[in-house]
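ok posting inputs for the L-Erythrulose job
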Amino acid sequence: MIPSAVTVSLVNEARGGPFVFWDDLAAACQKAKDLGFDAIEIFAPSATAVDPSELSQLLVQYGLKLAAVGTGAGMVKHGLSLTSTDADQREQAKAFIRSIIDFGGPHGAPAIIGSMQGKWGGELSRDAALDLLREALNELGQYATKHNVPLIYEPLNRYETNLITTVADGVELMKSLATDNVKLLADLFHMNIEESNLADAIRAGRGYIGHVHFVDSNRRPAGLGHMDYGPIAAALKEIGYDKYASAEAFPYPDPDAAAAQTIAAYNEYLKD
Ligand code: LER
Ligand code: MN
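and the output
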């Protein structure tokens, strides 16, 4: 079974970004529950932005799980990257991610490393950047074991990173790590830009995919672009994928309609 999730952003600097619900966590939980989502995915400005006991209370009240917690605010709000040439900045980036791991971990929710992976260029070669990324993923992946959750690493499209842009390259990166506690995020929006064939890419990720961002080709909610979900859903089922399909999409045409559209597409393609 593939459970469903919907994103809620609490990050002012990310406004205009691909998150369905915004600002009000309690209202997002209410909507998610009403529509039949299994979980929420939080994009938080910091690990202290949400009171842990308030989060626990909301999850219990609405019968929801916490699917994952994004770390992108480390980049968009604090300017931190795991592949910064400045060692102190890299340490701050890792500390930020550890704090997010500790925030989501008690709820069984992994942290997602997307934009915080950074880029290579200038004085930093691709190999050197990948070494820094590997070092960070090994350390943080190991750290996440204390909560018995994986760490999620997200290949991004070429306009957002020049490190790892495909699932197959992500699998090679995973194989080169000392830890097996890092899993890949298959974001269908990024994959639509970078992959030759999305279903084949998912099959290539067998055993390595730990989270899916369920979204359409234009980053609108599933069903509002030209993504061919039949083969994608078949590939996910073929590889025995049983983690979340999480709606990380623009709140188009508005948050409520985007969430409703997503759950309709989820029910059509992914629900058993
Ligand atoms: C960014 O494009 C993205 O897909 C997010 O999940 C991570 O920052
Ligand atoms: Mn994503």
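notes: The domain at 4-269 is CATH 3.20.20.150 (TIM Barrel). The first helix runs from residue 25 to 35.
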